[in-house]
Amino acid sequence: MEIRHVDIADWHTISAIESQNFSVEEATRPEVIKERIERISDTFLVAVINDEIAGYIEGPAVPQRYLTDDLFHKVRENSKTGGFIVVTSLSVSKKYQEQGVGTALIAALKDLSVAQNRQGISLTCHDYLISYYEKNGFIDEGESESEHGGALWYNMVWENPRK
Questions:
Q1: Which stretches does DSSP call E strand in 70-160?
Q2: Measured CA angle at 80 (ends 2, 61), to 5 deg
Q3: Of 54, 102, 105, 127, which alpha carbon lies 20 to 30 A from 134's?
Q4: Going by C-beta distance under 8 Å and a sequence separation of 6 or more, which residues neighbour residue 50?
Q5: Which stretches does DSSP call E strand in the chain?
Q6: What distance in Å separates the CA atoms of residue 71 and residue 50, rounded to the nearest whole number?
């Protein structure tokens, strides 16, 4: 498996993976994915297996600790250092699920967070994913204020140990 930064040529495949794994209410629209590729490629990683995109993780670097709903729709340029990378999507193609792709992407984003001198990584997840993120070093910091997709979300934070 190779993990690399996203390229605009990945857009259609990433959009298809997004729609496979999220409900219509929760999925990011293809045009927003394209804008993220164009604006925040420095915090947008893809996993490639046998020349095929197996999954991706992405999100903007922001000054606040927690993800806010506006970040699902508005794409801002990343600051060069500092703040938190807030994950707006981690998704793995159904073909490659249960093979460690998500865990590898999280590990690569942690390395990137350290290299970019970020405070850490923050994300929201459903209750059934809390233990998965805890196994990957995240701390459950309780219910999120997010109302994205009309669902209940939990704040999960990994802090950069070098900060």
A1: 84-87, 89-92, 120-125, 139-143, 154-159
A2: 70
A3: 54
A4: none
A5: 2-5, 44-49, 52-58, 61-62, 84-87, 89-92, 120-125, 139-143, 154-159
A6: 32
Classify strands 139-143 and 52-58 as parallel, antiparallel or unpaired. Answer: unpaired
Residues 6+ apart with CB under 8 A from 56: 6, 10, 14, 17, 44, 45, 46, 47, 89, 90, 91, 105
Q: Hey, what's the torsion of the CAs at 36, 129, 81, 14, to 10 degrees?
A: -20
**Alpha carbons 19 and 37: distance in angstroms, whole number:** 17
Query: Contact at 8 Å (CB) between 47 and 6?
Result: no
pLDDT per residue over 22-59, tens digit each? 888 888 889 999 999 999 999 999 999 999 999 999 99
Q: For the ranges 73-77, 97-101, 118-122, which has the lowest average pLDDT?
A: 73-77
